[in-house]
Design a protein that fits this description.
CATH topology: Rossmann fold
Number of strands: 8
Shape: globular
Mean pLDDT: 93
CATH class: Alpha Beta
Helix content: 40-55%
Number of helices: 11
CATH architecture: 3-Layer(aba) Sandwich
Order of helices and strands: EHHEHHHEHEEEHEHEHHH
Low-confidence stretches: none
Largest sheet: 6 strands, parallel
Length: about 325
């Protein structure tokens, strides 16, 4: 069935959990805004696709995951990496193409991965993640370790055959898999209202015999609630879930995108819907946290991002001897 879950309250989380959630979202936001600034300086090679504005999705889902679990990402993968625990120093170095990067400078922004954290990789292939997590979910099912696998994908990827085949396979094999459709309104510059046949991507869940849920992607607590139910169901052998998270990305499809297809929606989202502002208002008005506690996290995150940039700029580039390393597997 498809439905919309009631918005949970912050009372369901401990103060430490709330602080952790805020730190993840603040780290994603500051990291992305800093990459935005650094890219404009011309030192970052390749393309960059930023996740700012979408923080509640990655943070709300990954808050339920542990070392047994894995995620597969998209070309817009920095936020997923951070939420799954990938080190931002290694990430920043990777974005700069340095040998100290998460993938030794060979992947760049669109291909950051850290298997030790269960991060199977950002992916330049639209719809490339869902098949990967079916494999990982099948492995967890056979091992009986209670692990779940999560695929984040966009509204454009929701139309890809790889995604639809994966939804079908996950139900047929009753896999502990969760499919998170991050609908930011556009596949590159094409509006999802034009390119997606149904009003809601979550409606497609019914065709594959799995629950489908729509959540407000600007609300961390709504995402957290939906993801918690899906993860619990998957761990207990209840099979896959499709979650559609709706929000607005703050930057263009890629850095340099002139965004002629958008009007004032970003300014409205930043002012009235922003997930960090809503989170802060929720937890401080309810007395779970104080503004001082959140301000302290803001300061700590800002310093950490500064340190990551300094380290990335100072790190060496890969040399010729690194060209064929990590290409072939030795048995």
């Amino acid at each position: 069935m498809t439905g919309t879950l009631p918005t949970p309250t912050s009372q369901e989380l401990t103060p430490d959990q709330l602080l952790d959630a805020y730190r993840v979202m603040r780290t994603i936001r500051d990291f992305e805004e800093r990459v935005h600034e650094e890219f404009a300086g011309g030192d970052i090679p390749g393309f960059v696709h930023l996740y700012a504005g979408e923080e509640a999705s990655a943070a709300g889902v990954c808050a339920h995951l542990d070392g047994r679990d894995a995620i597969a990402s998209t070309h817009r993968g920095h936020g997923h990496c951070i939420a799954k625990g990938v080190d931002i120093v290694g990430m920043m170095a990777e974005i700069y193409g340095k040998s100290t990067g998460s993938c030794r400078g060979k992947g760049g922004s669109m291909h950051i991965a850290d298997l030790s954290k269960g991060m199977l990789g950002a992916n330049g292939i639209v719809g490339g993640g869902p098949p990967l997590i079916c494999g990982r979910a099948l492995a967890s099912k056979h091992k009986g370790d209670g692990g779940v696998a999560v695929a984040f994908f966009g509204d454009g990827a929701s139309n890809q055959g790889t995604t639809l085949e994966s939804l079908n396979l996950a139900t047929v094999w009753n896999l502990p898999a969760i499919f998170v459709a991050e609908n930011n309104g556009y596949a590159e510059a094409t509006s999802s209202s034009w390119s997606v046949a149904t009003d809601d991507i979550a409606d497609r869940a019914a065709a594959f015999g799995m629950p489908g849920v729509i959540v407000d992607g600007f609300d961390f607590f709504a995402v957290h609630e939906a993801a918690g139910e899906a993860v619990a169901r998957a761990r207990e052998g209840g099979g896959p879930t499709l979650i559609e998270v709706k929000f607005t990305r703050y930057f263009g499809h890629f850095e340099g995108d002139q965004q002629l297809y958008r009007a004032d929606e970003v300014a409205n989202a930043r002012e009235k819907l922003d997930c960090l502002k809503r989170f802060r208002a929720n937890v401080t008005s309810g007395g779970q946290l104080t503004g001082t506690q959140l301000d302290q996290i803001d300061s700590e995150v800002a310093a950490a991002v500064d340190e990551a940039v300094v380290a990335a700029k100072a790190a060496p580039k890969p040399d010729a001897a690194d060209l064929l390393t990590d290409v072939y597997v030795s048995y």
